[in-house]
Prior knowledge:
heterodimer; A: mainly alpha; ABC transporter involved in vitamin B12 uptake, BtuC; two-stranded antiparallel ribbon; two-stranded antiparallel sheet; 15 helices; 6 strands; globular; B: alpha/beta; Rossmann fold; six-stranded mixed β-sheet; four-stranded antiparallel β-sheet; 39% helix; binds adenosine-5'-triphosphate; binds magnesium ion
Amino acid sequence: MGGPASPAAPGSAxxxxxxxxxxxxxxxxxxxxILKADGGWEVTGLLTLLGLGFFLLERYPAMGDxxxxxxxxxxxxxxxxxxxxxxxxxxxxxxxxxILHLLIVAQLYAVLALALNFQLGSANIPNFATGASYGIGxxxxxxxALNFGMSFWLTLPIAALAATLFGFIIGVPSMxxxxxxLALVTIAFGVVVQQLLNNFEWTGGPNGLVGIPAPSLFxxxxxxxxEVFGWKLPSQxxxxxxxxxxxxxxxxxxxxxxxxRIGLAWNALRADEIAAKAQGINxxxxxxxxxxxxxxxxxxxxxxxxxxxxxxxxxxxxxxxSVTIMTMVIVGGxxxxxxVIVGAFLLTILPEKLRAFSDYRLLFFGVVxxxxxxxxxxxxxxxxxxxxxxxx
Amino acid sequence: xxVLLKVDNVxxxxxxxxxxxxxxxxxxxxxxxxxxxxxGAGKSTLFNVVTGVYKPSSGRVIFDGVxxxxxxxxxxxxxxxxxxxxxxxxxxxxxxLDNVIxxxxxxxxxxxxxxxxxxxxxxxxxxxxxxxxxxxxxxGSGDLFEQRYRPAGTLAQADxxxxxxxxxxxxxxxxxxxxxxxxxxxxxxxxxxxxxxKRLRSEHPELSVILIExxxxxxxxxxxxxxxxxxxxxxxxGSFETVRADSRVQEAYLGKAAAHA
Lengths: 392, 261
Ligand SMILES: Nc1ncnc2c1ncn2[C@@H]1O[C@H](COP(=O)(O)OP(=O)(O)OP(=O)(O)O)[C@@H](O)[C@H]1O
Ligand SMILES: [Mg+2]
């Protein structure tokens, strides 16, 4: 009767640790393989393997529960393995700057998808303006750096606050609308922001802003190669680690909110607004809050993007960007932190790898996304019920 | 005893339809009021007006000395009115336990900054909620506690009704409104429900209950204060005996049963 109450965790902690380490290494190996894959056959083979994996996971959910329980049983081992994988990846990739670039973009999208997940996943608010918040973060920090010579580290919080303000501004009219209308309101906001960036003179119009200086930390410029213990990593590695740090911040933010009464309130209004109000939940406020948190995190990603690419234009923050982020959340798994990150990585890397199919690239991309949704209708990693105390 | 809820000349119109017509009544602290009346009489509408789901066309609702007419539902809940819905409105994709914990929303305080920067505090608050929620799930009849990690949407009908009551009680309300709690329960389950409500009252003598019921066995169990509504108007009020004997009530509601007797 307990349902998913006591997931089948392995008997001993050692066994759990082995499962935890192996499963993460497998994931990392797969990521490495797909990043290195070249040519249609290799990519197709890897995607088939991935599809098969998710098919088995759908068929035998106990498998997934087993791995999740193992990871949760030995949290220190899990986190240490994850840290080693993330820190070590650039060394594995070596001087391949293209792969590092893909990883940076994937991590920034992971942050954007986690940001949107507060709304779409936790509270079922279809916000099509995440791309706009991302753009506001990028533009505010770039303008501050270019016009006032402000350092990256100072523009980061200011841009985030500016975008949060924007989040409140979209949030307030959105309180009065729902579902389809709400989606339309956010689309309108997104388009307006992009048009304004295009038409203002001080934002550089359609040409955007150029020459955003690279950040530096303790005298080390992010534009110069990174040297660690005699290893020389390309300058992209600086931004790789910076965006990895931001992903960690986003994960911690997401986890802490999810586990608190705020996450519960969002889930409550997602399930039934009228019942949520009857529990004393100020639904309107929690919706606005979701907008604000989304914008805050998206702006961080925008700032890093601007300083990484050093050139931004309105084209980087179109409606299509918002749609992409939304697809990442849906494919990855609504309200599942890990799933959302997987979705972001998959949907960032896939289009690049499908270049091998040249003209049929977009068609193939669509087919793959639909294929995964058919194998896993609830997303690659669907939301899980919260576990408490001994059950965690 | 002092008055807890006072409904004053409340009228609720939906377009041309008068769902409540100048309804007035009051209930005291620690008492039970059973509301009866035929289908479509306006009973659920009365709950919706009291809890702020609808703003009455005219009239006032006074709760605990404060005018709450037209206040938004979340504020009414914060002031101490818990409720259940006629057609259970559970958070069906969340666990049974989470449903009850959400019911404690007004009793918890963690804000965004606390959740982000003081996870220890937020975690302790949540742990305390889990403990209280588990106690609530163990309180009533049935085996909700054993099912606490199931999605609420997969519960059997009787358990859904019990869970809604547990969730409403989680906010430690001063007044709880139960809209046909026995719907979907068999005789044994209904008896257990009556016993639960009685035990609840003896443990919380200050708690007031308003109960909408079609099942006369439940109404009979709380015979002190009964009110009958028909076509939106209060047609009788008093003890179960008086209300049952009232000719207008017999006509409106017990008509067929009385004819049989
Ligand atoms: N939101 C609404 N809009 C229009 N009419 C409504 C609305 N809510 C209720 N009504 C109408 O008001 C009348 C009273 O409905 P209500 O649900 O209060 O009855 P009830 O006494 O609870 O009946 P039942 O015993 O069937 O639950 C009905 O005619 C109903 O159709
Ligand atoms: Mg009703």
